[in-house]
Design goal:
With 207 residues, the chain is mostly helical. Helix content is 46%, strand content 7%. The protein is elongated, with a radius of gyration of 20 Å.
């Protein structure tokens, strides 16, 4: 049995999107935006794809191509995140925010970005409590191969996270979300104190 036409079209639209998972379109990821487009949402809300993606979406949906909605963001060359490793406090918030597992590290340890995997989504920037993440030119274009590989990583990450709560409950039934959040907030606060003390020491040594 063939899939319903709407599901088939959603898959085609999703495949046409750049898979940066940046949420600038107003949806949680590329697939939800694709499904919304099939349901009638505007086809011009993808800044990473810009005019090329709009033209493809117009052809797929039979709608006219229209100008990019710049309230969603501006088009531009690919950027990648870079962490100032001397300032990183190891809070893991950027790791949690990255939709495609492009950041590696551990709690209270230095984090780093894998440039070849970074989509330039910028979702890691707002959560960083010490503002140590910068977006820099990637020096290359985003390719269809990048999009396919990134979608696979995004799907794999979501599957892994979907299984994590059940595992956590099995090994630690007494743990509560509130308690875990309080522990993390306390750890971040302590890390910030250490980072400020380290910076004060550096400043004193330079005088």
């Amino acid at each position: 049995m063939s899939p319903p036409l709407s599901l088939s079209l959603a898959a085609e639209v999703d495949a046409a999107l750049p898979q940066t998972q940046c949420r600038r379109c107003g949806y949680d990821a590329c697939r939800p935006y694709a499904e919304a487009i099939v349901g009638g949402a505007a086809i011009n809300r993808c800044p990473p794809g810009a005019d090329d993606v709009i033209a493809t979406l117009a052809a797929l949906t039979g709608r006219p191509a229209i100008a990019l909605d710049r309230t969603c963001g501006l088009p531009g060359p690919l950027t990648v995140a870079r962490i100032d490793e001397t300032a990183c406090i190891g809070c893991t918030l950027c790791i949690d925010a990255c939709p495609v597992d492009a950041i590696v590290g551990a709690a209270k340890r230095m984090h780093t970005v894998l440039p070849a995997l970074c989509t330039g989504c910028e979702l890691c920037v707002p959560p960083c409590p010490v503002d140590c993440i910068a977006m820099l030119p990637a020096g290359r274009a985003w390719s269809p191969e990048d999009a396919r590989a990134t979608r696979d990583r995004y799907v794999a990450r979501n599957r892994r996270l979907a299984g994590a709560p059940a595992f956590s409950r099995a090994v630690a039934p007494s743990a509560s979300p509130v308690r875990e959040r309080m522990k993390r907030e306390a750890a971040i606060a302590a890390a910030l104190v250490r980072a400020r003390a380290r910076r004060s020491s550096w400043s004193a040594d330079r005088k």
